[in-house]
Structure formats: structure tokens, C-alpha cells
Amino acid sequence: MDRGVTISFNYGIVYLASTVSYGITTYYVSYEITRLICVSYGITRLTCVSYEITRSIWVSDGIPRLIRVPLNRKLTVIILNGTGKGNVRGRPTRSKKDS
Question: Are 43 and 28 in contact (CB under 8 A)?
Fold first, then answer.
């Protein structure tokens, strides 16, 4: 059973939704064509999809971090994993449209 809560901040086109499902919290932020999905299940994962520059503030163990990811015009997915030990890694992938 899923429990969902949606919070919208209408400052232009910024939306924030929070969904709790089986102890997993999902945050979704949309600003123009930037997508940020944060899933917290013991490990914080950020999935950013953007055609331009994505700026995300990632908080792990109370430590805020500013991540700037310059992307090309092709659809690129950057997966950033943080285990609370300060390790962050990025992996660009291709979408089905680019295949």
C-alpha cells in the first residue's frame, strides 16, 4: 500500500512532490527541463535528467553539497550515490531515443 503526499510550490514552474512507499521516500523536483529524483532507503540516490546544467543540493548526514553537472543537448542521466561516507559517483547513460 502506498501513502502519498504532494506539495506544490508555484514559483514559476517549480514543483515538489513527496511520496512514502514501504519506508522509501521519493522527492521529485521539476524546473523547466531539469528532473531530480531522490530516493532515500538507507542510501541516498540522486538521479538527474537534464538537457542543460543541473544544480542540485545533496544532503547526506546533515552535510549539504552543491553539485554542478554540465550536460550536452542529448538526454543524459546522471546517477549519484552517497552512502553517508562522502563517496559520490556519476554514470552517464543513453536514452532509448539516442539508440
Answer: no
